[in-house]
Amino acid sequence: MIPAKRPRKQQHRCHLCSYATFHKSHFRNHVLTHTGEKPFKCNICRRGFSQKIGVKRHLSTHDVFKDQSSKNLIAAKKPGKQHQCPFCSYATIRKTHFRNHLLTHTGEKPFQCGICLRGFTQKITLQRHVFAQHEKKQLHNAPNRLW
């Protein structure tokens, strides 16, 4: 008896970067990194992420423990040095959050779009801008669209 050949799976390739996979679900998740859609939310602060793993990594920024009776995640305040803004009432224990916040007062925009030269205070905001303003048409016209 000759075994039947299995049909070859179709490879899904991203037209905006070099990503390729044989798994349609992996490809769908990857596309979210370009669209800016963030369907996965942190249960504590409601921050959104494009992939489930992003939420899992993010949870480590919260001090959390499981309430054994309900199995729910509970946030606990982290001890640490508070960074107090000298211009307003903003305070945080996260140095990177504090640095980003200060940019709202100084007007400095260290991340600049290489296409239209618009400035941004954060790298992620620049990335979202590039996608929304300069790459969206390219993605919308791409073959094998998922929407």
Going across the biggest sheet, name each strand in turn: 1-2
Mean pLDDT: 77
Proportion of residues in β-strands: 15-25%
Q: How many runs of DSSP E, i.e. beta strands? A: 10
| Major sheet size, sense and barrel closure | 2 strands, antiparallel
The global form is elongated
The portion of residues assigned to helices is 25-40%
Secondary-structure-based class equals: alpha+beta
Taken in chain order, the helices and strands follow as EEHEEHEEEEHEEH
Number of H/I helices: 4
Computed Rg = 21 Å
Gap between N and C termini, in Å?
A: 43 Å
Which residues form runs of ≥5 with pLDDT under 50? 65-70
GO molecular function: DNA-binding transcription factor activity, RNA polymerase II-specific; zinc ion binding
Protein name: C2H2-type domain-containing protein
Pfam families: zf-C2H2 (PF00096)
Subcellular location: Nucleus
Description of the molecule:
This protein is α+β, with helices and mostly antiparallel strands and 147 residues long. Helix content is 33%, strand content 18%. It has a two-stranded antiparallel sheet. Residues 12-39, 40-67, 83-110, 111-139 form the C2H2-type domain. One of its GO terms (cellular component) is nucleus. It comes from Larinioides sclopetarius. It is found in: Nucleus.
Features:
147 residues; alpha+beta; two-stranded antiparallel ribbon; 4 helices; elongated; zinc ion binding; repeat; nucleus; metal-binding; Znf_C2H2_sf
Present the secondary structure layout:
Elements: E1 12-13, E2 20-21, H1 24-35, E3 40-41, E4 48-49, H2 52-58, E5 63-67, E6 72-76, E7 83-84, E8 91-92, H3 95-106, E9 111-112, E10 119-120, H4 123-140
Antiparallel strand pairs: 1-2, 3-4, 5-6, 7-8, 9-10
